[in-house]
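ok trying this again, last paste got cut off
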Amino acid sequence: MAFAGQLIIENLPRDEKGNSLCVPCRTTKLLCGKERCPLLVRLHAHQRTHTLLTGTELAGASPPSVFVGRYGYPKVSIGPMLPPFGGDTSLLDTPERWVGRKIDDIVDFRSQLVRTRFQVKELNPEKGNRMVQRTQELAMAATPPHVDATLHRPPQGQMRYGATVQPMGPSAPLKAFDRDTVKVDRHIEKAHSDTDLLARDALSELHAKGVHTSAMSRAFSVGAFGVGKRRKLVPTRWSITAVDSTLGLKLLERTRELPLLGDYQLHEFTGLDNRWSVLLLPTEWCYELIEAWYPNTLWNPHRSGISIFHSFELNRGRKGYAEIGGCYYAARLAVNEHLHRLGRQAGVVIFREAHPGYILPVGVWNVREHVREALRQPPRRYGTLEEAMARVGFTMDIPMKRWIANSGVLKDRMFQKRLDDFEV
């Protein structure tokens, strides 16, 4: 999606012969099978800001937001993200506030942010140039600071979407930038100042103080935490999963010591045409995320057949990276937060149905925040696993038999013999 007066869309849907479906459709027939035209969503977001992004001078209030790229690592591109206007722009990069919003809103938020970038050869932020240090300070800000940026050329490029990071608007190489005095978040500043504090301990302390996960990921990506000389810039995509995984594992240490839940509890929620059912089992810790993608959704572009993926861990945890990706760790963090509030240990199975209304990817925050929101809802309580699963089968479109066939935890609980099964 070019922002210098031109709209470019990549990866257009095509028929079996490779012809674009968009030409005969022209947004009226929905030949791609989606409930709404993704091109129109992107176009409307594009039209709001492209006329403001024609020069090489850019001034606005960063939410705050920064982005560290992963291509070419260990040489990375880094820079602040900012819109062409001032005021309170914090909503544009605070996914904790996006539950209940429409996909159009989220695309609109993100399309307004220009991703400025300059290349960094030294990953240690302390050895970086002044622009690296200014970017680091901006990433730790508590409120949106005003930024004046000079670009090498006007912002342009495609609107980018991914499963891990939030959608991103146009980009431009950064020549120089300056910003107002930054009011740094006091909790993050304290962790940053302690150069003997391990990064995982810094994250744990910040989490206990209620700092947003997105704020921790942003500061983590610019090397704000950790033991002095070991601090590194971390690509944004990696930092999000690193924070989710680190916090989840830290909470899990305590979860394993808690008494077991007394009954089966089921939490439900629907958002962005994703249905969520979070089932808590009165067992020792085990965990699974099962995702079902309907036809004509992002990861299942086919016209027929539902694709189901899952990753799980039993009581001893897992060693390899989850097949399902960063969403696994985002949801694991959310459920461990909930178990700590309950003061109970439990097994957890999360069922997700992604329906065709989920026309564009919006980032891994979608999983973390919607699972959190589901767990805020009053639970339905059941005395047996069969009763709980009957409710899941009623709420979700996919029959329970197929969920079980694609589940590691449920099959383990239903069919694996245990010592107490042999007690006389």
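PB: full thing came through this time. Residues 264-414 form one domain.
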